[in-house]
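In the lab's daily routine, each protein ends up as an entry in a very long ledger. A line of letters takes care of the sequence, but it says nothing directly about the fold. The fold becomes a row of whole numbers, each drawn from a learned catalogue of backbone shapes. The protein below has been through that process, and both of its lines are reproduced in full:
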Amino acid sequence: MDITKVNMDLFCETCNEETVHVITYAGQKIIKINCTNCHREFHASKETAFAAYTDEVMHRIKTKPERVKEEIKSAPVKSVMSMPGRLITKFFRIEKEYKSIKKELDQR
């Protein structure tokens, strides 16, 4: 799950005009919206954001067997050769993902 930031023109009630806002996504879930003019911030609670993250991780875990099966069908040698390295680094990638989301949520 990646942290993605998108700039978008939205109406700001504080500024009483349309201004550029930075929308921060964790995966497909909005976790924060920030007005670049007045810096007012709207955000999901940490509990809500982590619940969304947990839901997405659980979905990825449930669908992983099917995705691996499809990968092996499409490129068997490459899949089998890369699997050990990917398995070893998976825990580190998950930790990096978690820390990235936590850092974003702690910047409040």
